[in-house]
Structure formats: structure tokens, C-alpha cells
Specification:
Length: 454
């Protein structure tokens, strides 16, 4: 595919200049209308037949050009949301900050967006909806419903590689920002002035890291330069949106390389502030643990295994939880109580940055709690622990800690063997543990002399 692109650039054939754009024959890039989803094609056709301009745009065009499978298909048009809605029976307008229309097909959802503009002079182009665009003191766009032309729409997109417009009706690619050249050079380049674009929407910082890692591209120096300085703008992102973006970063299958980019550009400090300083101190294996968590997650994704944000966040925050729990045990709390108190406090701080939903914080706390319980596996406890619904994740977490260099006295191996053993062997294994005196210490009950000898 890339070879074909390079050849095409050499020959410069079949390209026409509309002054604002360069139009390429998509066939030269191996792109044909059959490669886009039939539904996306139909949406474009319906809009065009109604007299509107319409293109398939964004990630799907980028991915097809790179030989990757698009996640979904987005359509951009000069029809306004209500006009789009009137053309499709199963459609609805969603969003406030950024209105789009969802067109539902039986199994596929096509997102249709009206061309947006960044130019204030284009405010006339749209009708109702006041205020159309709002900006916070820091320069962040909080409302962005100013409609414009396709050229404006290309200018307001984030990266040049994400701003290619594909028209299946004549099989052409419309390029306004030299995106095809950047695909060819494997470069991530922000459209416009990078510092301003990052200030307008700090999520773009994360998007640069995400696409750089996903595509294996490099960041153009002019785009990279303001990134670490703008990193603190990430604090302006609303916690729910920030959480969603972190999932895209970490559950993409390129978590390890994304993590490295986040660190290189000082973005990670903003994402998990409580742990960032522990990584810098070099304390309690924090850097190794987090890096390893991403490596393991990537491996799981590539072998189609389930990954959960709870496990990732459990790993991300564990160094902070462990440190705070140690602080409380040093001051006389029981390990269980100290861990639970630390967990609560660390989570409370983190959700003011990335709003982790309760359906994930609960399992995170269980995984952490089981870190204290899995070593205490004598007698009947091993069987009971192995039946805990969170056992598997907690066991994986033990393995992760060991991989990151922690010495847990062979605990991971023991549990591996236990799971592989038959019932009789299991009994023997747990008896051996209880015989070596690894018994549960009962908290809450006042200790009597006999207990304290244990
Ligand atoms: P993915 O494969 O992850 O879906 P994508 O490029 O399609 O990648 P989306 O988040 O689906 O990304 O967004 C669709 C398009 O909208 C992008 O390609 C880009 O052109 C534009 N876009 C998305 N987010 C922003 C943003 N924060 N600022 C500017 N443009 C954006
Ligand atoms: Mg997309």
C-alpha cells in the first residue's frame, strides 16, 4: 500500500487542484468504494442525492490508506443536523458541545457531522443555536457548533492524517492539509498552530500520543514542541471525558508505546498525579509495575483476551495505595484497615482527575484487598479464595507485581500450581501452608496471648 502511495507521489498523476484542496484518484491508493461500509456509502449517497456535499472522513479513510481495518465510519456533510435527521428514518441528534447525528442501521451506527468552522466570520453560516461557540478563560472550546464549508471543516480537525475526505461517488480523496504526504512520511502533524490547537482542546495532546502509538508514526517536531508545556491544560478536561480518553489510550493494544509517549511529553504526570512523583522518585517499583501492566494488557488484547479498565487502573494506582497503606500500618492500623483506608483516599483523589465509574472502582478495591488475602492461603482458605469471582484478576495482579521485580516468596508460582493441581493435590498444598503456620490473623477481635504467639 505505502509503496503504491510513494509511486503515486513520484508520478503525480490524476490529481487536480481546486486551489483549496488537492483531489486524488483514490484507486491509486488502493481505495475503492467497496472498501467502505455499505451503510456509510448509502448515507453519503442519500445526502448527495438530496443536493448536499458529503464525504467519508476521519479515522476510517486514514486506516484504509494504511491497510488497517477501520473501527467505524464517519460522514461529514454541509447538511445541518435537522436536515440530516429528516433524511434518515432511524436517526437522532446527539450532543450539546458538539451536535452530531447518529444514523442507525441494523448493526452499524454511522456518525454524521455537519462541517464545522473555526472562523468567527462563519457564524452567519449557521442559523439557530445560540451561543454557537463558547470558549473558557484558558482558551478551551466548550461549545463548537459553528457550521462552515468543507475547507473550514478540514482546518478545524486535529491531525492532517485525520482530515482526508473520501468521496465514494467518484472515488476521490480530497486533501486540504497535505494529509496524504504525512501518511506517506508516517508523520503526525497538528493542523494549524499546535499550541493554540492544544489550548482549544487539551484532549488533542492525548490524541497525538494515541495515534502516534497506534500507527507507529513519529510526531512532527513543530507539533511535539509545545506538548510538555501544554500538558497542564489536561487539568481542564472534564473528569468523565478524561476517563473515556484514558480508556482509548490504554485499551487500544498499544498501551506500552502510548505510555512511553505520555511520559516523554509529561502528559502522564497529569493523568495519574499521585503516582507520577513515585515514578520519578524511583520508589516501590512504580515505573516497572505500570510499564509491565501495559505490556501485559497489550499481549492480552493481541490474543483476544478480555481486558478491564479495573485491572489497568488497579495497576496504575497500586504504587500510591501501597505507599499510603504502609503509612497507616506504621501508625498502628491493621494491614486490612490500612489498605482499605488508603484505597478509598487514592480513588477519591483520582476520580477528580479521571472519573472512574463505580463499576470499576469496586473491582479495583477487591483486587487490592485480595493482594493481602492471597498470601494467607492455608487450610480451607485456598479453596475459598480460588472461588472468589475476582480471584483470577487478583492472581494476575500477583504475577504482575512479581514480573515487576517484587519478591513475594514464590506466591505466583504457588497459585499457578494450585490451579493446575487435582483436588487431592490442592488439599495437600493448602495443608502444607497451614502446617508452616501461615494462619490468618483475625483483625477487629482483641488479641489474646495465644494469638500473639502466632
Ligand atoms: P478512531 O480510529 O479512534 O475512531 P478517529 O480518527 O476516527 O479514530 P474519532 O475520535 O472517531 O477519531 O474522531 C473522528 C474525527 O473527528 C477525527 O478523525 C478527527 O478528524 C476529528 N476529531 C476528533 N476529535 C477531535 C478533536 N479533539 N479536535 C479536532 N478534531 C477532532
Ligand atoms: Mg472514528
Amino acid at each position: 500500500m505505502l509503496e503504491r502511495i510513494i509511486k503515486f507521489f513520484d508520478k503525480k498523476q490524476s490529481q487536480s487542484d481546486f486551489s483549496d484542496r488537492t483531489v486524488f484518484d483514490a484507486r491509486q491508493y488502493g481505495l475503492t468504494p467497496k472498501m467502505i461500509s455499505r451503510n456509510a456509502h448509502q448515507v453519503v449517497e442519500t445526502l448527495q442525492n438530496a443536493g448536499f456535499e458529503a464525504y467519508v472522513v476521519g479515522g476510517s479513510v486514514r486506516d484504509l490508506l494504511l491497510g488497517l481495518k477501520p473501527k467505524d465510519f464517519d460522514v461529514a456533510t454541509n447538511a445541518e443536523p435537522t436536515e440530516i435527521k429528516s433524511l434518515f428514518r432511524r436517526s437522532r441528534i446527539i450532543g450539546r458541545r458538539f451536535q452530531i447525528v447518529h444514523v442507525q442501521f441494523s448493526r452499524e451506527l454511522i456518525e454524521v457531522t455537519t462541517f464545522r468552522s473555526n472562523q468567527d466570520s462563519d457564524i452567519k453560516a449557521s442559523k439557530k443555536n445560540a451561543p454557537l461557540r463558547q470558549q473558557s478563560k484558558s482558551g478551551m472550546l466548550t461549545r463548537d457548533n459553528v457550521f462552515g464549508s468543507v475547507t473550514d471543516d478540514a482546518e478545524r480537525r486535529d491531525l492532517t492524517v485525520n482530515a482526508l475526505y473520501y468521496d465514494p461517488s467518484d472515488n476521490t480523496i480530497h486533501d486540504f492539509t497535505d494529509g496524504l504526504k504525512d501518511i506517506n512520511k508516517r508523520t503526525i502533524r497538528m493542523i494549524g498552530d499546535p499550541a493554540t490547537r492544544f489550548r482549544e482542546d487539551p484532549v488533542r495532546l492525548l490524541r497525538v500520543a494515541r495515534f502516534t502509538a497506534k500507527l507507529g508514526f513519529s510526531i512532527e517536531p513543530r507539533t511535539a514542541k509545545p506538548m510538555s508545556k501544554r500538558a497542564r491544560d489536561l487539568a481542564h478536561i472534564s473528569p468523565p471525558r478524561f476517563f473515556d480518553e484514558t480508556l482509548k489510550l490504554f485499551m487500544s493494544g498499544n498501551g506500552a508505546s502510548t505510555y512511553k509517549l505520555l511520559c516523554d511529553h509529561q502528559l502522564f504526570d497529569q493523568l495519574v498525579p499521585q503516582v507520577a512523583h513515585l515514578i520519578k522518585d524511583g520508589s516501590n517499583n512504580a515505573a516497572k509495575l505500570i510499564e509491565q501492566a501495559f505490556i501485559n494488557t497489550d499481549i492480552r488484547i493481541s490474543s483476544n483476551k478480555r481486558v478491564t479498565p479495573a485491572f489497568i487502573y488497579a495497576a496504575l494506582l497500586w504504587p500510591a495505595v501501597e505507599k499510603l497503606a504502609a503509612y497507616y500500618t506504621d501508625r498502628g492500623s491493621s494491614p486490612t484497615y490500612a489498605l482499605s483506608k488508603a484505597a478509598g483516599e487514592v480513588i477519591a483523589k483520582q476520580i477528580s482527575v479521571t472519573a472512574i465509574p463505580r463499576r470499576f472502582t469496586m473491582p479495583m478495591r477487591e483486587i487490592w484487598d485480595l493482594q493481602l488475602q492471597l498470601p494467607r492461603r492455608g487450610g480451607h482458605r485456598a479453596k475459598r479464595l480460588s472461588e472468589n469471582p475476582r480471584f483470577r484478576a487478583a492472581y494476575d495482579f500477583i504475577l504482575l507485581r512479581e514480573q515487576a521485580g517484587e519478591d513475594l516468596a514464590g506466591l505466583g508460582d504457588w497459585w499457578t500450581q494450585y490451579q493446575e493441581a487435582d483436588e487431592e493435590q490442592k488439599l495437600k498444598m493448602s495443608e502444607l501452608i497451614s502446617n508452616t503456620g501461615n494462619r490468618r490473623r483475625r483483625s477487629r477481635r482483641p488479641r489474646h496471648k495465644k494469638d500473639s504467639k502466632d
